[in-house]
Design a protein that fits this description.
The protein has one domain (2-8, 37-112, 138-197). Helices cover 25% and strands 30% of the residues. The protein has helices at residues 2-22, 58-62, 71-84, 87-90, 162-167; strands at residues 38-46, 49-57, 99-107, 141-150, 158-160, 173-180, 183-190, 195-197. It is globular.
Length: 198
């Protein structure tokens, strides 16, 4: 499975370049641009192994991006985390495929993880400031990475994201990179077009 993850960035490179040119002045101008309502999903089906990697602005999943300080905010974060910890239901994988989670990892500043630095820190900690000198925080993202072993992968003819849109209604679109037996495809999934064919 490691080789799939290593190959994925190269497979996505043409797409990243296309997005960089298409993405005028939006955040970092790359595939990783942070846009509310839009998530990203990489899905790789190779033999009996299915790997899903979901990246989403926290706003789409919990309704805010600041650190949860109130009980209500903490409850929203806990609820979202619980839903993300049940990927078999969230991704509506067909029971006939016999997919079981072999590993999963959730990361987000909202879960207490340190945000990944996008730049080198030269020990000068003056982050982004605007013309008024006001400090801007990084947008909070939620990253979920799942690996499944599927006893009957032929039963996985498609990936149904309907439950993701129902569970997290602020998510309007998911940009999907799908790699499966029939090759690679890039698709935008929406609540009304949530089923993708492998």
């Amino acid at each position: 499975m490691r080789r799939l993850l290593l190959a994925l960035p190269f497979a996505l490179l043409p797409l990243a370049v296309a997005y960089a040119h298409d993405d005028h002045d939006h955040e970092h101008g790359s595939l990783g641009a942070h846009e509310h309502g839009v998530g990203r999903l990489n899905a790789v089906l190779d033999g009996q192994s299915l790997e899903l990697e979901l990246d989403s602005p926290a706003m789409n999943l919990v309704g805010f991006e600041h650190a949860a300080t109130t009980d209500a905010d903490k409850a929203k974060v806990a609820a979202a985390r619980k839903q993300l910890e049940n990927p078999t239901a969230l991704f509506n994988l067909p029971k006939a495929a016999g997919c079981v989670v072999s590993s999963q990892a959730l990361k987000s500043p909202l879960f207490g993880d340190k945000p990944e630095a996008d730049h080198d820190d030269d020990d000068d900690h003056d982050h982004d400031h605007d013309a008024k000198g006001e400090h801007h925080h990084d947008h909070s993202e939620i990253h979920a990475h799942y690996q499944f072993t599927c006893s009957t992968p032929t039963a996985l003819s498609n990936l149904d994201l309907t439950q993701v849109f129902k569970t997290f209604p602020a998510t309007q679109k998911i940009q999907v990179q799908l790699i499966g037996p029939s090759g690679q495809q890039g698709v935008d999934a929406t609540a009304s077009a949530a089923t993708l064919k492998f």
